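Consider the tokenized backbone below.
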């Protein structure tokens, strides 16, 4: 299948041709580690996890690099507020980020570089930019701690790079004050659009030696140096959130091409914003939910599924209602897969990443759905279409499970189960032991919808006790009446020869 990707640089979807046949180099801007990551970050990294999974499944050798910014104004401020050193702060939040990514089933990148371990590469790149006449050096506003030395700032001269703004489409006249919350007015700059490559040391800040005295890197130069270090001066794809197009990625292009004479990323991919009431979710706006706060209420598979239901180029609105719907849909699929495993018990292994041996000839609906799944991912990684490709097979699975011994149904059950395992490897959903996930989702829903000690739970327990007594008294009319009252509270009753159980009313929605 031909791979087509929307390139932010050319503003069109185009046939992707890797620089080296059979190999793809991918760089994604990582988080600034001064706080817990929010679900806007989750959208970016879940999506690029699918990208690298799909590319590998297509037969490409992928080198995936995602960095950490571990020195930055926000990190320094937070460390001062906490009265801790920057290193302990960033180490703690890097560990937290890894925990969040593991919970969301994101596979580790091949390389996760830190800014603080790439200072020599950063300094070398700035030297190249200065030597080529694209940057200038100015004395620092802050006195040096060494009376015999003067620390300097280094700024990129935007006017010396005529192609500046090609990614964002901004003209040179647009690039004035207020371009970024990380940029403030500075009379020493030739133009307020110029941006810092090197910042002279301020008292009490992390600092390193350089040809311009003690200081630290500017924000933008970090990713240029780290991407070129690990992928080379020319590489295939660069990605991140839409908010990084300007100024971060415009600046990356300018300084990288100024340093190396013209090469850098060939394709650019950017995700639309995750919004709350149509407003971008961000830490600076204070309207964000951390990944771990959301996962304390909803299952990770439900969050991951939700994040894949909107095409990455489009904005996606986050709400509890959307997560509840995602929970219902994920639970419906996993329950069918659990039932399939019970029917096929002893015939096949189950579990994360294990391909499922099949029984009999593959039904045409499974063959067609697999084709649709792969075509969707080859067409600019359309995860909504990929998920939709599973709908018909899941409906067929549900029907076959009603009469598993009927002619042809065992084949349908077996092959749809195998398709789900393959989809799980590509999308990172429906890849775990179904019975375990069903139990986890239901327990989480109980705790979320009927918390211990709540009036609702007390009401449910009272109705359950009354219904149990009605059944003992063989008062079936009263038992049915109480079942209806429980359903109105969001409770589903399941009766069997072993007794009655209850659960949140979530499972009736299928794929």
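A designed sequence for it:
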């Amino acid at each position: 299948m031909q791979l087509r990707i929307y390139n932010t640089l050319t503003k069109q979807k185009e046939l992707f041709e890797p620089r080296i046949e059979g190999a793809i180099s991918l760089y994604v801007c990582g988080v600034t580690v001064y706080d817990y990551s929010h679900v806007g970050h989750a959208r970016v990294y879940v999506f690029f996890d699918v990208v690298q999974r799909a590319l590998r499944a297509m037969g490409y050798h992928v080198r995936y690099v995602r960095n950490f910014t571990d020195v930055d104004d926000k990190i320094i401020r937070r460390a001062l507020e906490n009265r801790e050193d920057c290193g302990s702060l960033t180490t703690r939040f890097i560990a937290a980020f890894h925990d969040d990514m593991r919970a969301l089933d994101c596979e580790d990148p091949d390389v996760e570089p830190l800014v603080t371990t790439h200072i020599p590469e950063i300094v070398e790149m700035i030297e190249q930019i200065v030597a080529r006449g694209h940057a200038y050096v100015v004395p620092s506003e802050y006195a040096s701690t060494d009376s015999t030395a003067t620390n300097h700032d280094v700024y990129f001269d935007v006017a010396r790079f005529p192609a500046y703004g090609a990614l964002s489409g901004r003209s040179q006249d647009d690039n004035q004050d207020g371009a970024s919350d990380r940029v403030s007015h500075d009379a020493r700059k030739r133009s307020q659009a110029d941006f810092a490559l090197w910042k002279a040391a301020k008292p009490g800040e992390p600092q390193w030696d350089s040809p311009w005295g003690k200081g630290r890197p500017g924000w933008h130069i970090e990713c240029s140096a780290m991407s070129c270090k690990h992928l080379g001066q020319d590489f295939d794809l660069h990605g991140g959130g839409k908010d990084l197009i300007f100024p971060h990625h415009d600046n990356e292009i300018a300084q990288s091409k100024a340093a190396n004479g013209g090469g850098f990323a060939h394709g650019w991919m950017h995700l639309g914003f995750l919004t709350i009431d149509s407003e971008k979710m961000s830490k600076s706006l204070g309207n964000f939910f951390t990944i771990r706060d959301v996962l304390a209420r909803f299952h990770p598979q439900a969050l991951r599924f939700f994040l894949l239901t909107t095409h990455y180029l489009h904005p996606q609105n986050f709400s509890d209602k959307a997560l509840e719907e995602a929970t219902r849909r994920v639970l419906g699929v996993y329950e069918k897969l659990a039932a399939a495993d019970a029917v096929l018990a002893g015939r096949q292994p189950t579990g994360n990443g294990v391909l499922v041996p099949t029984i009999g000839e593959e039904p045409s609906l499974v063959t067609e759905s697999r084709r649709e799944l792969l075509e969707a991912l080859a067409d600019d990684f359309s995860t909504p279409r990929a998920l939709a490709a599973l709908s018909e097979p899941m409906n067929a699975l549900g029907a076959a499970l009603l009469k598993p011994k009927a002619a042809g149904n065992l084949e349908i059950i077996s092959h749809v189960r195998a398709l789900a395992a393959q989809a799980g490897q590509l999308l990172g959903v429906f890849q775990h032991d179904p019975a375990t996930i069903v139990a986890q989702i239901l327990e989480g829903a109980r705790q979320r919808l009927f918390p211990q000690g709540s009036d609702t739970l007390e009401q449910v327990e009272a109705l359950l006790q009354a219904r149990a007594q009605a059944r003992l008294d063989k008062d079936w009319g009263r038992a049915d009446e109480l079942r209806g009252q429980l359903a109105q509270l969001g409770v589903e009753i399941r009766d069997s020869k072993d007794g009655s159980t209850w659960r949140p009313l979530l499972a009736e929605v299928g794929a």
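Residues 320-343 form the longest helix (24 residues).
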